[in-house]
Amino acid sequence: MPNVAEHIIDQFDAQGIRRIYGVPGDSLNGLTDALRENGTIEWVHHRHEEGAAFAAAAEAEITGEIAVCVGSCGPGNLHLINGLYDANRSRVPVLAIAAHIPTDEIGSNYFQETHPVEIFRGCSVYAEQVSDPKQMPRMLRIAMREAIEKRGVAVLVISGDVALAEMERAEPQKILKANPRVLPSEEELEQVAEVLESSKKVTILAGAGVAGAHDEVIALADKLAAPIVHAMRGKEHIEYDNPFDVGMTGLLGFASGAKAIAECDVLLMLGTDFPYQQFYPQQARIIQVDIRGEQIGRRTRVDYPLVGTVKDTAAALIEMLPTQTKRKHLDNALEHYRKTRTKLDELATPSKDGAAIHPQYLARLIDQAADQDAIFTADVGSPVIWAARYLSMTGDRRVLGSFNHGSMANALCHALGAQAVDRKRQVIAFAGDGGLTMMLGELLTATQNKLPVKVVVFNNSSLNFVELEMKAAGFVTYATDLQNPDFGAVANASGLKGYRVTNASALPATIKEFLAHDGPAVLDVVTDRQELSMPPAIKLEQAKGFALYAIRTVLSGRGDELLDLAKTNWRQMF
Fold it and tell me: Closest by alpha carbon to 70, among 2, 104, 116, 103?
């Protein structure tokens, strides 16, 4: 008779799972031994369980299939939580096996005892404990089905002794994913079509829900003469081959996207849960299409809610709509985008040798040198801003990040999971110096597992985005300094290939060599700390905040910081 752990691995094998991410521990002995006996599923050994959870999330997002991570009892599985929150909020299917203390010790305040089912409730769509081998294999199938169909995290809590207990032999059963076609009612579609047809100023806001619906959304925009603004998670799915693209809005975006939304009289939201209320229009009528009805109206007033898949709903509307002949709103938005794009590109220029490198220039060079099917990951903070503004999509490129959960230190960990799926595909992480050092040990995961990730470090010796938030709020920057090592040297000492660039003139050739290296590599680039990532429009309260910051900075005896700030950003102001 097989034991529970052996059945779990057999079920994973039948499901087509090829990797498990984690850190071993005695409460996982049954699982790791079954994995050793299996021989076909790879153990991706991490240095921290948080990295394992982020990596599993990245695999699930890249493949669309369920991915697996594991953690030993108590502190081991607690370390999974941040990456699991990210996966659950990004709506990707991940199964986490959380080992537990011995069954007969539960409730005794035993060594490493926690209450894992309670703990994981907040970051999962399903969290249950296997207390008896008789619960298997049904509970494993339920957990996997929950993760796959709800596109979220399922957690199975299993004590080490239960994992080693024998169970009745059961044939593994592959869980097939449903692919439903969901449409609003005819009455709802007709009502919305009338609203769209009567409007001369429609703007589309596209999010991650437009995945797989690129052509339908483009065709709908053409019918409506509507500019398309995208959220960060929609970038990879709709930005490419898009004559109606006017960029992003929000904190990561720029003026043209914000303007196209502010000036519309109908905003058509397609598969987006864009969170920032201040960037929605005040007077426009709003139509929101989402496959999950509970998402509708969370961010702004919605006049016309439509529950449906974007691809099918857009296709239905296309058939009902005439082609809008008055295209002034679209033409104005596209012209403003061209001007905005030109200004952004003008910032991506080399600095003089001896001066810190503009991060925009670094991002643009990476974009130009990267493969047409490269996978990019970006740390939360300033790296994701440069990724949003300077990475161009091709239809085959991907961009991953902690865009909903907003966690630091995700870029390297996401990159490891993406690279594990395909070691021949180019994977490039945009890492902040703060984010990288938070999970620095995961560089060793790259070397040990032979994952040829390329890590670009935007090294400005600060928690740079935190500083920007302080300045915008009128505070003198404080407690944000980072005393960094030479990350290229750290990489070399860790078995990766390390590079360090301090002059812009050396950057193009070094990037070419860095990306061509056959193995994991780190490119440490000293970037300008004072570079401002300007929001789409400067609000009055932000202007007041910067003025207050200037006054307080002078009074604190740090007036030289203001001179550096002005010197760096003079080109953005005029």
Answer: 116
The one catalytic residue among 65, 112, 195, 295: 112
Reported as a single tens digit per residue, the pLDDT across 328-382 is 999 999 999 999 899 889 889 999 999 999 999 999 999 999 999 999 999 998 9
Angle at 344 between CA 339 and CA 349, to 5 degrees: 130
- Report d(CA 515, CA 536) in Å as an integer: 32
Catalytic-residue membership of 380: yes
Assess whether pLDDT exceeds 70 at residue 253.
Answer: yes
Q: Which pLDDT value is given to residue 506?
A: 98
Is 376 an annotated catalytic residue?
Answer: no
Residue 157: pLDDT band (50, 70, 90) is very high
Active site residue 112: yes
Tell me how many degrees the CA angle 471-365-385 measures, rounded to the nearest 5.
30
Judged against a pLDDT cut of 50, whether residue 565 lies above it is answered with no
Q: Closest Cα partner for 515 from 400, 372, 384, 413?
A: 372
Q: Does residue 274 carry a catalytic annotation?
A: no
DSSP-derived 3-state class of residue 283: coil
CA distance 228 to 242: 9
Contact assessment for residue 265 and residue 209, using Cβ atoms and an 8 Å cutoff: no
Q: Cα–Cα distance between 147 and 525 in angstroms, integer?
A: 39
Which of 6, 49, 61, 561 is labelled catalytic? Answer: 49
Identified catalytic residue from 465, 467, 501, 522:
465
- Among residues 289, 380, 456, 525, which one is catalytic? 380
List of residues 6+ apart from 339 with CB closer than 8 A: 256
* Bridge partners for 377 per DSSP: 400, 429
Q: What is the average per-residue pLDDT within 269-294?
A: 94
Residue 534 pLDDT > 90:
no
465 labelled catalytic: yes
- How many CB atoms are located within 10 Å of the residue 543 CB? 11
pTM: 0.93
